[in-house]
Amino acid sequence: MKLTHINEKHNPKMVDVGEKAVTKRIAVASGEIHMQKSTKKAILEEKTKKGAVLQTAIVAAIMGGKKTSELIPMCHNILIDGIDVDVEEIENGFKLIVTAKTTSKTGIEMEALTAVSIGLLTIYDMAKAIDRSMEITNIHLDYKAGGKSGEFRRDGK
């Protein structure tokens, strides 16, 4: 197996995507944050000291997706066509679902995953004064399409 991010001198390199075809690409990633019931209630009622937690987390997720190539060393800087963030209530917290799209030579999975991570970390940051026991879990890629490797579905369907 040839390692794609190592050159002939065994030094790190960024993969050359210059010859790849430009295609429409989409990635959906998700993750959860679990918390005390009182913390969830305070967030939903916007009664935390830091303001509108969920709306701020959505904006932070979008910003995180846009900054991915600055945070992940071998990640290409790509033009992002769009990022959409959904927040769902779960029994003991919230689930963030991020859909990211690009028309590019390389995928957008890392942008979706970074967006989820930053959004969840923002919720933690804004509510940590009332609940330091919050737990961020289950960050993963749910779906991707486009490019040479084709389609991936976590659920296998």
UniProtKB/TrEMBL annotation:
Taxonomy, superkingdom: Bacteria
Functional pathway: Cofactor biosynthesis; molybdopterin biosynthesis
Q: What is its EC number?
A: 4.6.1.17
Under the heading Gene3D superfamilies, the entry gives: Molybdopterin cofactor biosynthesis C (MoaC) domain
The record, for SUPFAM superfamilies, names: Molybdenum cofactor biosynthesis protein C, MoaC
Q: Which residues form a coiled coil?
A: none
Active site location: D125
Q: Where does substrate bind?
A: M74, C75, H76, M110, E111
Q: Which reaction(s) does its UniProt entry say it catalyses?
A: (8S)-3',8-cyclo-7,8-dihydroguanosine 5'-triphosphate = cyclic pyranopterin phosphate + diphosphate
Question: Which InterPro entries does the record cross-reference, listed alphabetically?
Answer: MoaC (IPR023045), MoaC_bact/euk (IPR047594), MoaC_sf (IPR036522), Mopterin_CF_biosynth-C_dom (IPR002820)
- Keyword Lipid metabolism (UniProt): no
Q: How does it assemble?
A: Homohexamer; trimer of dimers.
| Functional note | Catalyzes the conversion of (8S)-3',8-cyclo-7,8-dihydroguanosine 5'-triphosphate to cyclic pyranopterin monophosphate (cPMP).
| Similarity comment: family membership | Belongs to the MoaC family.
Q: Sorted alphabetically, which HAMAP family does this protein's record hold?
A: MoaC_B
Could you tell me what this protein is called?
A: Cyclic pyranopterin monophosphate synthase
Q: Which gene encodes it?
A: moaC
